[in-house]
Amino acid sequence: MSETQSVETGVEQKLQAFIDAIEDSEAYQRFAAASEELEADDEATTLIDEYQQKHQQLQADFDRSLMAELQELQRELSENETIQQHQAAQSDLIELLQQTNDVISEPIGMEFAQSSGGGCC
Predict the structure, then answer these.
(1) Residue 76: pLDDT above 50?
(2) Pairs from 100-103 (Cβ < 8 Å, separation ≥ 24)
(3) At what angle do helices 81-108 and 42-60 cross, to 10 degrees?
(4) How confident is the model at residue 19, as a pLDDT?
(5) Angstrom distance (rounded) from CA 116 to CA 37
(6) Euclidean distance between CA atoms 74 and 19, whole angstroms
(7) Do 50 and 73 touch, CB atoms closer than 8 A?
């Protein structure tokens, strides 16, 4: 095994340990559980689908009655307990990932998780 392959293997092992640590975190576990609950909640998923559909329609053609329907759906979404729990868990996970990014970014002197705005190809 060459020195480059050895370094790559070491980096891959550390990356896997990092991924495992994130997956074992309380924030990730809560998010995963909340995501499963959301997927199993027909009322919540119907509300989300309907909201997304109305939002797309509104973007294509503004209509006051459609706007009123969208606002009502938004109110219903904000009152749905499953959706609230999912959003809270998602916020906690995002905060953990932002903190992780900060910890990694500081020693390397650049934004670790910075988006370059494009893909590899």
Answers:
(1) yes
(2) 100/22
(3) 70
(4) 94
(5) 33
(6) 34
(7) yes
